Amino acid sequence: QRVKIPVSDQDWARLEALASELSAPNASPSPGQVASILLSLALDTVKPVGEANGERPDPALAKKLAEKVASQT
To answer: How far apart are CA 63 and CA 13, in angstroms?
Structure first.
């Protein structure tokens, strides 16, 4: 599924730099592709696929996520 996710100019520049660093003769990922993979990895860190229902994310991580969300509103 393709969705629009707001990204700061600073984060987009970081994604562009990372995509450039990951480029190889047989693969040249776009910043959006790198972002998608990073998002998937981050979600697995917060709550892995198949994890038992009802379990909550790590409290420290949940606090950081809440702070980031609050700062973006």
So the answer is: 26
Structure tokens at 15: 């994604």
Q: Would you write out the chain's pLDDT as a tens digit for each of its 73 residues? A: 888 999 999 999 999 999 999 999 999 999 999 999 999 888 877 776 655 566 677 778 878 888 888 887 6
Contact assessment for residue 22 and residue 29, using Cβ atoms and an 8 Å cutoff: yes
Under 8 Å CB-to-CB from 56, ≥6 apart: which residues? 62
Task: Tally the residues of the chain.
Answer: 73
Its pTM surpasses 0.85: no
Tell me the torsion sign for CA atoms 53, 35, 5, 71. Answer: positive
What is the distance between the alpha carbons of residues 50 and 37, in angstroms, rounded to a whole number?
18
